[in-house]
What we know:
Elements: E1 4-8, E2 11-15, E3 24-32, E4 35-41, H1 49-60, E5 68-70, H2 76-79, H3 82-88, E6 93-96, H4 98-104, E7 114-116, E8 124-126, E9 133-138, E10 148-152, E11 157-161, H5 181-192, H6 196-207, E12 215-218, E13 224-225, H7 227-238, H8 242-270, H9 272-283, E14 292-295, E15 298-302, H10 306-320, H11 323-339, H12 346-352, H13 364-367
Parallel strand pairs: 4-5, 5-6, 6-7, 11-12
Antiparallel strand pairs: 1-2, 2-3, 3-4, 8-9, 9-10, 10-11, 12-13, 14-15
Helix pairs in contact: 6-7, 8-9, 8-11, 9-10
Bound molecules: fe (ii) ion (2 copies).
Amino acid sequence: MVKISEIGNEFFLARSNEKDFHRNIYFKRFKGNGKTVNIVFDPGTKLDGDIIMESANKLFGGIQNIDLVFLSHQDPDVSSLTPFIMAGAKKSILITSIDTFRLVSMYGISEKRTLFIENFNTEVLTIKKTGHKIRFVPAYYCHFRGAMMFYDYETNILFSGDFAGGVNTRKGEGFLATEDSWEGIKIFHTIYMPSNLAVRETVNRIGLLSPLPEIIAPQHGDIITGDLVVDFLTRLDQLEVGIDYIKKTEPQRELLMDSLTAFIKRIKNSYPGLWDNLKEALNKPGQFTTVFKIERDDITDIKIDYMDALRYLIGLIEKVIPPSSTNEIKTLLHFELESHNVMLPVSILSKLKVSEDHEDVDNFENLLQ
Ligand SMILES: [Fe+2]
Ligand SMILES: [Fe+2]
């Protein structure tokens, strides 16, 4: 059974059930003047058919009563169910940007059933039937050229598409963001957003909304409320992502990749069995992505913050290497990092520290001749 939560007046959330990286699908009933207008935001994929059918039944009295489908952009995780919904909801209209339509039109969606956001000539729009005020807010290049967000003035909820979305780093039940959600937002933006300039422009556009959103509802991750709205926007404003991140960290990333390749060579020679364990764990994609790209036992890419990647590797060592060998492997890693001059923060150094009374430490001398 699909769990539907009301996050604001007549504004509902249903989440897909992946643990690490899920989709949020939102539904809103605009009710006024004795009439109702039903809208679904980023309806997801064929995997989400049950969510849509069940939610539309409960909230709208059936899929045929969907009036509007809003697409923030064209990615398949957002848009691929749209043609099926529009086939079932014969009177429904798609609202999206011209840039997005250019791509989703490939699903066979007709231009006649689409409203293009760029063609509205006022910023704040009124839903004629019900009198509600809404506004489309561009999120240019975050992460698509024609990405759009949707501001509902009745609830002060900003549906933000991929912007402010995240991987699930907060553990446990519920859907509200906490401090623990930030890490996931950071990882997602570092990978998917092109540059800090694009992120900053989007933050500024949100900052100009009056009133400021009380809730940011992204297509992935947790719902941001309360003080965290301004707090996370402020951090996003400062975050180096995409191309600026790659540029800045390139020298250190290169050093890290070299040192990890050397580390792999050593562990492969000295502990082939343990390398098999570690390699299997490294190559197993999470629901989000694999952290390292490994080609013929060389590390050829690191997909997230390089220090986060190192923390992840140390975590894996602790998880898959038997306790009797963990210290040796960590020491080996530490040695390669230091000899390649990788700058290590204290938080990493403390994870690499081995307990001094461990009997296997002495053996390490033999490994490095
Ligand atoms: Fe996307
Ligand atoms: Fe997405």
